[in-house]
Structures are given as structure tokens and as C-alpha cells.
Amino acid sequence: MVDCGEGAGAAAARLTGRPVSAERTRSGGPAEVLLVDGRAVMVKRGDGPGAVRAEAAGLRWLAAAGAVSVPEVLGQDERWLVTELVPTGQPGAEAATRFGAQLAALHGSGAPAFGAAPPDGPRDAWIGRAPMRNEPGADWPRWYAEQRVLPYVRAAVDQGTLRPGEAVLVERVCERLPELAGPAEPPARLHGDLWSGNVLWGADGRVRLIDPAAHGGHRETDLAMLRLFGCPFLDRILTGYQDAAPLADGWAERVGMHQLFPLLVHAVLFGRSYAEQALATSRTISDM
Predict the structure, then answer these.
(1) How many whole angstroms separate alpha carbon 87 and alpha carbon 56?
(2) pLDDT tens digit sequence for 173-228
(3) CA distance 17 to 198
(4) CA 270-272-278 angle, 5° bins
(5) Is residue 261 within 8 Å of 151, Cβ to Cβ?
(6) Phi/psi of residue 59, each to 5°?
(7) How far is it, in rounded angstroms, from Cα 135 to Cα 139?
(8) pLDDT by residue (tens digit) across 223-252?
(9) Res 3 pLDDT > 80
(10) Among residues 237, 232, 235, 214, which one has the least CA distance to residue 88?
(11) Is 193 a catalytic residue?
């Protein structure tokens, strides 16, 4: 049995089978650990039951597509995840264009169903520190409403972040999703939590994706999240994406619809300001 007081360095040594020569911890974040063989690794403690399993399975599933790079998983158990440490650099236009094409290839590698969990990943997973259930579905508008929007509407109402009368506005948008969703598309292999903080610009000029909430979904959802929270050289990313796999007509008008999911997750995690953004987005959609 592992000692509950085990630190990041001890966990790295145990899970990689290599002694540790140095360790640097971050307040509230992963630790950087140097192994005696010279490898630098990142050591992260899971935030909830199944969180490490979900993240490790997501990283492996994204890597298996052979498209966007991710840090290699070097070891894991129920509490700790050890991955390679990637030296970071500055965002660049050429790297962004390549990343856009790679993201298109990742999405195009597909998933068995909307809501499909990565192989060996748990059905009850996480997005950040919020629970996220991977319940498969065949019809995207219905699945998106039932599994990605309404659960967080209910959670926000339960905690008082969203008022019941306000929730009706989002529920009405969900009722209209079949007419708003655009042309039907096959399930894409999503990163699932693609805000700029999870796009790592490597010192070698390659982009890596970290901290996934990977699942099968609509490819426009990943792109909408990139736009919601901003990303360096986003226009170049979209150009690379469009050149590789053009988006369906009307995709720009559907961005707000896809942003409802991350906005409501953030409302549950961080409070009223995100609920107000979700309501404003719902009003815009209702006027379409």
C-alpha cells in the first residue's frame, strides 16, 4: 500500500523505477522532477476518483491518432500521473498553421460514438475539476443537450449560480439544437478541454496538447473553446485546419452553441460571471 503522505518525487521514483535527483514543486500544480538518468518529468496528482485514469487514457488515445503530439505517459496509479516534461518556447505562426492541420487530423481519426470514452478510460471522467460523464449517443444534438449542456445547467441551478427562470433560456436553446446544429458529421476524436492553457508551445517548434478531457464529440466544439478563451495565432490555426479539413458552411454562426458547454462548466466551477456569459450566448442563439 502506498503511503498517503507520499510526495511527487517519491511517486515519480516508484512509477518510473528510477531514482530522483531533484524536485521542484509548484503551488497547487504539478511538480517538475529530474530523474538520475537525466530525464525531466512532470508529476501530477489526480483531483478526484478516476481522474488520473481518465487523463492517462485520454493522452494515449490522442497520441494513437498520430496527429497532434502529447507528452508521453511514463507511469500512473490511482493517485499520480507521470509524463515527460516538455521544454516550452514561444508561439509562432508556422507552428500554429501546422497545429491547425494536425488538429484536423486528430478530429478526423474519429471515435466510436459521441460521448465515447477513450479505450481504458472511465465513463465517469472529469473536465478540469468538474465531473463529466461519457455516455455514448448516436445523435449529436440530443447527446450534446443531454450529456454536455443540461447536466451543468442543473448543477449551476442546484448551487445557486443560475436561477431556475434563467435556466429555461438555455433549455430552449437545447430544444432547438436539431435545427441549429448544421450538417450531420461523424464523431470526432476531441481533446475536450481545448483552452489555450492546454496548448503547449514546445521549444522545438512543435505543439503538444496537455490535460485532455478526451471523448467523441463534434469537431467544432474544440475549435469553439479555443476561440472562447483566446489562443495565440488563432487565425493561423484555423487556416491550417480549414486547408486540411474544411468546416461545414455556417460554422462561424455555430460557435456560441458549442461554447455553451465550457461556459456552463466554468459557471459550476468558478461562479456567476460565467453563468451570465452562458445566458448572453443563449440569448444570441435564440435570436438566430
Answers:
(1) 20
(2) 999 999 999 999 999 999 999 999 999 999 999 999 999 999 999 999 999 999 99
(3) 28
(4) 95
(5) no
(6) -60, -45
(7) 12
(8) 999 999 899 999 999 999 999 999 999 999
(9) no
(10) 232
(11) yes
The CA distances from residue 160 to 53, 63, 164, 271, in Å, are 31, 39, 9, 9
Whose grid coordinates read 516538455?
86
Which cell numbers hold the place of 58? 485520454
Grid coordinates representing 16?
518510473
Among the listed residues 47, 124, 193, 249, the single catalytic one is 193
- Lookup result for grid cell 496548448: 199
What pTM, to 2 d.p., does this model score? 0.94
Check the CA dihedral 260-228-198-101 and report its sign.
Answer: positive
Question: For residue 116, which phi and psi values (nearest 5 degrees)?
Answer: -65, 130
Give pLDDT tens digits for 124-146.
999 999 999 999 999 999 999 99
Nearest in space to 103 (alpha carbons), one of 206, 228, 230: 206
| Full DSSP string of the chain | ---TT--HHHHHHHHHS--EEEEE--TTS-EEEEETTS-EEEEEE-SSTTHHHHHHHHHHHHHHTTSSB-PPEEEE-SSEEEEEPPPB----HHHHHHHHHHHHHHHHT--SSBTPPPTT--SEEEETTEEEE---BS-HHHHIIIIIIHHHHHHHHHTTSS-HHHHHHHHHHHHTHHHHS-S--PPEEE-S---GGGEEEBTTS-EEE-S---EEE-HHHHHHHHHHH--TTHHHHHHHHHHHSPPPTTGGGGHHHHHHHHHHHHHHHH-HHHHHHHHHHHHHHHT-
